[in-house]
Design brief:
By secondary structure, this protein is mostly helical. The chain has helices spanning 21-26, 43-52, 58-68, 72-98, 103-109, 117-126, and strands at 10-11, 14-15, 31-32, 35-36. It has one domain. The strands form two sheets. It has a two-stranded antiparallel ribbon. Strands 3-4 form a two-stranded antiparallel sheet. Strand 3 and strand 4 (35-36) form a beta hairpin. The longest helix is centred in the C-terminal third of the chain and has 27 residues, at 72-98.
Length: 127
């Protein structure tokens, strides 16, 4: 990043400079000193990001952590969110180069009947 980052750009250990949640979510894997850094290594960190982004409050985070924390489902959701993030990153890079949104990105907005509801809701929010 060419712009110097101020302390105001960081909230609870996450970088918020995009003024769009989808772009801010991309910043959960920033490149610092030439190396990517994973800021969402686990479900707890994912919940912290949702709270820092003002999408969940502390009571909701606590409830989700108690209900799901440490479970296989929590690991799968965390991995699915990281995959979605990288898919979005790749689509944005293609868009920057070509000037057009790929059909595969547009197709993800239509979740269809086979998508899991929680994945569909996240995709719809970000794409």
């Amino acid at each position: 990043m060419s712009k110097a980052m101020s302390k105001l750009d960081w909230k609870d250990g996450f970088l918020f400079v995009g003024n769009q949640l989808a772009l801010d979510f991309l910043n959960t894997r920033p490149v610092q000193n030439g190396e990517p850094s994973e800021l969402v290594p686990d479900f707890s960190a994912l919940l912290r990001w949702f709270q820092a982004a003002d999408l969940l409050n502390s009571r909701q985070v606590g409830s989700l952590q108690r209900q799901w924390g440490g479970s296989a489902n929590a690991q799968r959701i965390t991995e699915a969110m990281r995959q979605l993030r990288e898919k979005l990153r790749n689509e944005i890079l293609v868009w920057e180069r070509s000037g057009s949104v790929q059909h595969s990105t547009q197709d993800h907005r239509d979740c269809g009947s086979q998508a899991r509801p929680q994945v569909c809701a996240v995709r719809t929010a970000f794409l």
